[in-house]
Amino acid sequence: MAEEISLMEIDDEEGTSGSLKTDKGKNVAVSAAPPDSKAIPWVEKYRPQSLDDVAAHRDIVETIDRLASGNRLPHLLLYGPPGTGKTSTVLAMARKLYGNQLQNMVLELNASDDRGIDVVRQQIQDFASTQSISFGAKPAVKLVLLDEADAMTKDAQFALRRVIEKYTRSTRFALICNNVNKIIPALQSRCTRFRFAPLDSVHVTGRLKHVISSEGLDVHENGLKALVRLSNGDMRKALNILQSTHMASQQITEEAVYLCTGNPMPKDIEQIAHWLLNESFLTSHKRISEIKSRKGLALVDILREVTMFVFRIKMPAEVRIQLINEMADIEYRLSLACNDKLQLGSLISAFTRARASLVAAAK
Fold first, then answer.
1. Same domain, 179 and 222
2. Distance between CA atoms of 123 and 125, rounded to whole angstroms?
3. CATH code of 302's domain
4. How far apart are CA 276 and CA 288, in angstroms?
5. Higher pLDDT, 11 or 208
6. Which residue among 59, 149, 189, 334 is least packed, with the fewest CB closer than 10 Å?
7. Are residues 254 and 341 part of one domain?
8. How many domains does the structure of the chain reveal?
9. Containing structural domain, residue 89
10. Is the pLDDT of residue 297 over 50?
11. For residues 154-164, average pLDDT
């Protein structure tokens, strides 16, 4: 059978419920029906099955749909934070394009595992060079999906550039990553780029309500708000928290959600902020240490929530900026495994200086 050649136009310069089975170097198979096993994580069980199921980023989804339907699909570079629908969008598009031939027409690799130049030279090139399946009179192109492409080595990315150039008439490449700055300019220029921003609360809430209804869960209104707040626009994180909280508690309340995730509750943050702004150094240090120990809170989580609290309270801009910068330095030192007690002292000292500045400004 002769190799099929695509008539698709390429290279615009600038710019989910299925079971996924991946084997290194093998094609991807996605089942047509959602799995109903209780062992399946909800992030997979409720992955959008079609492009219509992808609720957020409708402008991007509709653009990709038009390009694919019109035989003008370019190489794609989808980037943005985790859990925003990048992989789901590509899989839904592939499902629509290939139907029951999906297993033969799509190669999916996770570049964080398969990140070296040998993968590009062997697995990807072998797949791209094989013959395509004909869909009658319709030209067919294959699809290579590289998830977490920003984990690929520079040598592998340069090798991939040459493979894209060589097989661009018969194969399309979809690169998915979180940090687009780690993708070399030579690859970026060969792809149409789409940025997936964090999901807004409306879309996260709507999808969570769908899952809650399907699973018959008992979720309180404050519990739902806590799920949305802690997800920070990450749908995968929201579903994981929902499922883990359900496994730990029959009633999903705000307290159950925060207890399951280990995050400090808003009322605890308000109390800590009150101590930081009003109590002496020794009193603040003692009370914050006690609540950390009693509730098993991590200082880095307290620091991040207090930072958000600072954005919400009224204070002079210069005092706010100085305080936020100091807290960012503390968070950086915590990431280097610096002593928690010392960094708690630094946090209290930063608020002591901010409080003195506020008093001086009031005079």
1. no
2. 6
3. 1.20.272.10
4. 9
5. 208
6. 59
7. no
8. 3
9. 20-195
10. yes
11. 88
